[in-house]
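--- STAGE predict ---
source: upstream dedup step, 1 unique chain passed
mode: sequence only
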Amino acid sequence: MKKLLSVFFATILFALSSQLRAESADESLLIGPGDMLHVQVFDTPELDQSVRVTDAGEIHLLLGPTVRVANLTPSQAALQVRQSFIAGKYMVNPRISIVVEQYATENVSILGQVKAPGSYPIGTPRSIVDVLALAGGLNDAADRHITIERRSDPSQRVTYFVSNSSDQALNDSIRVYPGDTIVVPKAGIVYVMGDVGRPGGYLINSNDSKMTILQAVTMAGGTNKTSSAAHTRLMRKTGSGYEEVDVQLKDMQKGKQADMAAQPDDIIYVPFSYMRNIVVNSSAILAAAGTAAVYTF
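--- STAGE serialize ---
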């Protein structure tokens, strides 16, 4: 019986320690001056208290010395308090829990392609969906892959994909903390020029943030009857300029050849038919793309 009880309690302790490690790993915002902490001393409720972190980064407890907790996670701060109790011989084996009741109000910066870029005050962690709503949401030119820089560690950058699917956007939502910075880049553009229905630039901002050659041409109103689709050219940007590739657009349209993935800054040029006798060189195509209208759909 004793052996069974030992195994039982060992299993419980292991589960609790695993949970504590998981919670500790999930803590990404460090305690700072002005934060309100709830300090709980298990089995000694009279020592429980809510205390605000001073400008010096310390907390003054009902029992024991002043403890410095700034730049620590809540679990690390709890360990500091525990060690101070033991070192001061106030308690032999205290169990301490610290929870942040309220973070000091700090601004979250939202930059880039949102309707109202700026700095917004938040006092507690909030979902990325809520925070983007503060800035009016994404604008039509936004790339859906956004970057979050953590205040606690500027080298830590998290990427979040803003899905058009409400369920996916909410299910995959991550937390934004006071002091974080959100950057919403501009979506890539694919230019479709030449003998098409609506020449111009088209943003790669669909739900999956991808586009193919056929999709781009379709968005541009398709090829005109006077075009020479079989001689379509793709100009793709490289480190040293643009390289030109022949595209069998006519075969793609007929399903005889696989569609190709487009990349940001690609220029697809559908030439005019020989009967119209219009010859356009690469320089003219680049110049035309540089002044082309950009469409969001």
